[in-house]
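Why do we bother with holo predictions? Because pocket geometry can differ from the apo form. Keep that in mind while you read this record for inosine-5'-diphosphate.
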Amino acid sequence: MRTDRTFTMLKPDSVEKGNIGPILEKISSAGFKIVAMKLTQMTTADAEAFYAIHSERPFFGELVSYMTRGPIVAAVLEKDNAVSDFRTLIGATNPAEAADGTIRKMFADSISENAVHGSDSDQNAEIESQFHFAGREIF
Ligand code: IDP
Ligand code: MG
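The structure, written out:
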């Protein structure tokens, strides 16, 4: 299992607010190399499958509507210790609890609309990358 890749989505709120450029700048400045990237929109079935682990949570319906309401930027990022370093860069799930300088502190409005996704393990990084990209789209 490789440890130098993670998967991210700039969520619909980030795209709506014109924050693609500023967030990608933060990601690049932190030393992550983009090895796959596209603007895409998840269907309801896509979002239900991607977030299946949360299907019993009370916010699941809200999460699926949010994540499907407009385009996202999906990307695979490469850096040593990618999963953990990227979770540090994005900050806590709730932006009110995220450290200063983190992407969620700077760009997110709420625990539900929190600007970015970051994989939580090397295994999920691989699964989530393959969910969004064909092998030939990852460089
Ligand atoms: P993470 O994105 O920091 O890994 P998870 O617990 O995996 O956080 O939750 C997935 C996503 O579900 C969050 O990023 C957020 O968009 C949404 N979410 C998590 N907790 C809540 C909540 O308590 N209320 C509303 N939405 C939530
Ligand atoms: Mg998570």
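The beta strands are 5-10, 33-40, 72-78, 116-118.
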